[in-house]
Amino acid sequence: MKSRGKSVIGGWWNLGLPSVFLLCLFFFLLGLFASVLFSQQDVPTVRSRVLESVDLEKDFNPLPTGVSGDDSFTSIPFQVLSWFPRALYFPNFASIEQCQSIIKIAKTSLEPSSLALRKGETEETTKGIRTSSGTFISASEDKTGILDLIEEKIARVTMIPKTHGEAFNVLRYEIGQRYQSHYDAFDPAQYGPQNSQRVASFLLYLSDVEEGGETVFPFESAQNMDGTYDYSKCIGLKVKPRRGDGLLFYSLLPNGTIDLTSLHGSCPVIRGEKWVATKWIRNIEQDE
Length: 288
Ligand SMILES: *[C@@H]1O[C@H](CO)[C@@H](O)[C@H](O)[C@H]1NC(C)=O
Description:
Strand order of the largest sheet: 1-2-11-7-14-5-4-3
Strand content: 15-25%
Number of helices: 6
Order of helices and strands: HHHEEHEEHEEHEEEEEEEE
Bound molecules: 2-acetamido-2-deoxy-beta-D-glucopyranose
């Protein structure tokens, strides 16, 4: 028995290298054939499922457009944060590289942020309300073309032409720095007659903030509006900055009056550093 077993094993060994090679080739081809066969069965179902969710053109069939329209669909995800004020959140509105590039440009010309003064206010009486540093950059000044792309995208989501936008105000908040709650729109009763009005604001967060630095809406859904609100307090709807994400809110109601719930501020940064690019959008075209 032993010798027979041995001889069988020996027999296998005696097949030699060419036969082993042929055997391997045989199994390899068998495997290849099987995999092609199976994948042929699988591929159509997998592909059609992908196509169902991705091919907007096929599902919705774009309409013929006017001269300035698009012949394709655009998908820009957003989340409604609030109806009072009307506030939308856009995850991944800009890429990490775009954010880094904007910060790099802004860093060269930062100055202490200033404040539009109300009747009777002075720089001295308003000290501490807005403590960030910032700089104004128009899209045409950015040779990388990134601000132009961002501006274009903001115009698409607001459907307010980019000619209505002020230059980007890029802001840096260091630890302890903040902007007390305020309106972006200018009430003529407090600021005097206005040539135009800010309709909406778009904030593009250029950095994450480890702690603090939230954009806060204290009067969201008319809460805290009993007249006792302390403007330095960070209460109400808080939006934590996330790099690349956008926040859009409207300062005017559809009928053109100032939305009192659009009061907002920037909570003090507790850990880290906050960078944000702000675009104020007006009701009429801006020079420049
Ligand atoms: C505008 O709309 C608001 C909210 O609906 C309303 O309270 C206000 O009176 C309106 N103002 C004018 C001038 O129509």
